[in-house]
Design goal:
Structural class: alpha/beta
Strand content: 15-25%
Distance between the termini: 67 Å
Shape: elongated
Mean pLDDT: 91
Order of helices and strands: EHEHEHEHEHEHEHEEHEHHH
Number of helices: 11
């Protein structure tokens, strides 16, 4: 129960099952039963979860979702400063990871309030482990922008990322996203689409991005996590056209040409002068020869 002596409370971030309720962390039930306040992304889903676990919450249950996150955070911080133990749960996985929670954690940390976690299932790590792609270094990119132009821009920003990348995506946008990835990363870049992880119809589809885009065009349902191989560790030889293409991709993402050339040179392990010369040659060719849309203006 809340501490009335003036000692601050504790914020608990609790991981919830991403599919199979049997994956619920052992501590989750105890925390749900004893928390002074349970902040849930969806109170109806929380009710189904507690029923499945055979437990009852004794504390106050409040909603905490994207639409009210800013307004509700001060209320929860006030409860914490009053000594309450506040449990935060989202629909699936760990709060704050592409889910509500970051604002509350940041506010609690600023007030010197203890923040802890009940570890639980993670779609990010589960998909990464199942993908068959390198797992020694990876990065999580979350959801890409919904608009096509913004999505392409974001992908161009990570075109040379060498770490394995993990994305979330809505099923109705999956085919467009995979097609955009094939365009920016190359159709032969390896990837894995992980669907309905830990659920009855779990499926992991692996293959080159171009093939996965064709497969997804037929329609895909369920919760989707996409894992994409990082860019080659470039000890490979890159011809002038590829160097120019990489500079162009970075420029289109908003980098100045000088910085783009330096970044491409560093990634390729080449002198900046070599990349610069390739860019200049392409620029001159576009002025004197037939326009093919591949040069730099």
């Amino acid at each position: 129960m809340a501490d009335v002596t003036g000692t601050t409370g504790t914020l608990v971030l609790a991981g919830t099952p991403i599919g199979d309720v049997a994956d619920a962390p052992p501590r989750l039930a105890a925390e749900l039963e004893t928390a002074d306040v349970v902040a849930a992304e969806d109170t109806r889903r929380l009710r189904r979860l507690t029923q499945a676990l055979g437990i009852h919450t004794t504390g106050r249950v409040v909603s905490y979702f994207e639409g009210n996150e800013s307004a509700r955070t001060p209320e929860l911080v006030e409860a914490l400063t009053g000594g309450a133990r506040v449990l935060l749960v989202t629909d699936a996985g760990m709060p704050s990871v592409s889910d509500p929670g970051y604002r509350l954690v940041a506010a609690a940390v600023e007030k010197g309030i203890k923040v802890t976690a009940v570890p639980g299932p993670s779609a990010v790590l589960t998909a990464l482990a199942l993908s068959g792609l390198p797992v020694d270094r990876f990065c999580f990119e979350g959801f890409l922008p919904r608009k096509a132009g913004e999505r392409l821009g974001r992908l161009r920003e990570v075109a040379d990322e060498r770490r394995t990348m993990v994305f979330f995506e809505a099923p109705h946008r999956l085919d467009d996203t995979l097609a955009a990835m094939a365009e920016v990363f190359g159709g032969d870049r390896r990837a894995a689409v992980c669907r309905e992880l830990t659920k009855t119809y779990e499926e992991v589809k692996r293959g080159p991005l171009a093939e996965l885009a064709v497969w997804a065009a037929e329609g895909v349902r369920g919760e989707i996590t996409v894992v994409v191989e990082g860019a080659a560790d470039v000890a490979e030889e890159l011809d002038a056209a590829e160097l120019v293409r990489r500079v162009r991709v970075r420029e289109e993402a908003g980098e100045r040409r000088k910085e783009a050339i330096a970044a491409v040179a560093a990634a390729a392990g080449l002198p900046k002068r070599e990349v610069f010369d390739a860019v200049v040659a392409a620029k001159n060719a576009s002025r004197t020869g037939p326009a093919d849309g591949k040069g730099l203006s």
